[in-house]
């Protein structure tokens, strides 16, 4: 195979392995809309990166972290419902990113590549960022796994037992922000949440333990990446959307399989 195909497979596989466990928590905690909010804010991070002359990934991380902190602070005030806050932050940050991008008149930006990804253009540097950042995210998730499970099952009980619920929620948000930053080039800003949610949702039907669901979600994500890339290469389709379509097809096929009670 050509080098760019091997790099695409390695990049997509790395993201899928990382998205499985994190996506499982997103599904359990019903945080899909929060993932969309962070993904939409990534465009503002890319624009700030260009304006400040730094790597766009650094700008994305900075904006996502700021948004997560702002969301935690606003939720404590309890003046608006969580979905209302997420809607304001999501559309506001996306629109602000587009407006800021209009001021970069001397810079030509491939907006479609950032919105929908360009997995076939992954470089060796991107692979290092994906696997380095992925190792950090998985290590952090492994350290927090049991406590995050406890908070997910019963947040009030976890608080009574002395667990730092707000700190754990913020740490999980930061892990999602890191994944969005490193996955942006693979499936794009608008499709990142799909890769987090769809494999985890497909795995939920067959898994009997939280760890089993996380592992199966990673496996299904890797299968979706391989199938999507094969479809992209054979039929000249966009890479990122093809991966998401393959993941959705796996979910539909899984939903047709009869399960024993």
TrEMBL record:
It comes from the Bacteria. InterPro entries: ABC_BtuC-like, ABC_TroCD. One of its GO terms (biological process) is zinc ion transport. The chain crosses the membrane at residues 6-28, 48-74, 94-116, 128-148, 168-201, 213-233, 239-259. Pfam families: ABC-3. It is found in: Cell inner membrane; Cell membrane. It is a multi-pass membrane protein. PANTHER family: ABC-TRANSPORTER METAL-BINDING PROTEIN, HIGH-AFFINITY ZINC UPTAKE SYSTEM MEMBRANE PROTEIN ZNUB. Involved in the high-affinity zinc uptake transport system. Belongs to the ABC-3 integral membrane protein family. This is High-affinity zinc uptake system membrane protein ZnuB. It comes from Azospirillum lipoferum (strain 4B). The gene is znuB.
């Amino acid at each position: 195979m050509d080098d760019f195909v091997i790099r695409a497979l390695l990049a997509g596989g790395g993201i899928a392995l990382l998205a499985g466990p994190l996506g499982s928590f997103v599904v359990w905690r019903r945080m899909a809309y929060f993932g969309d909010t962070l993904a939409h804010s990534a465009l503002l991070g890319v624009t700030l990166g260009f304006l400040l002359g730094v790597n766009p990934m650094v700008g994305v991380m900075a904006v996502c972290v700021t948004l997560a902190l702002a969301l935690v602070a606003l939720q404590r005030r309890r003046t608006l419902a969580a979905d209302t806050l997420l809607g304001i932050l999501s559309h506001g940050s996306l629109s602000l990113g587009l407006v800021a991008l209009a001021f970069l008149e001397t810079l030509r930006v491939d907006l479609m590549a950032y919105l929908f990804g360009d997995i076939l253009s992954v470089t060796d540097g991107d692979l290092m960022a994906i696997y380095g950042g992925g190792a950090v995210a998985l290590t952090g998730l492994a350290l927090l796994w049991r406590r995050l499970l406890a908070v997910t099952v019963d947040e009030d009980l976890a608080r009574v037992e002395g667990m730092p619920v707000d700190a754990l929620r913020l740490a999980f948000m930061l892990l999602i922000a890191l994944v969005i930053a490193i996955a942006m080039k693979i499936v794009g800003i608008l499709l990142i949440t799909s890769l987090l949610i769809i494999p985890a949702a497909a795995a939920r039907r067959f898994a009997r333990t939280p760890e089993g669901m996380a592992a199966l979600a990673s496996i299904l994500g890797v299968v979706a990446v391989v199938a999507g890339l094969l479809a992209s290469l054979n039929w000249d389709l966009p890479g990122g959307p093809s991966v998401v379509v393959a993941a959705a097809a796996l979910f539909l096929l899984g939903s047709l399989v009869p399960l024993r009670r």
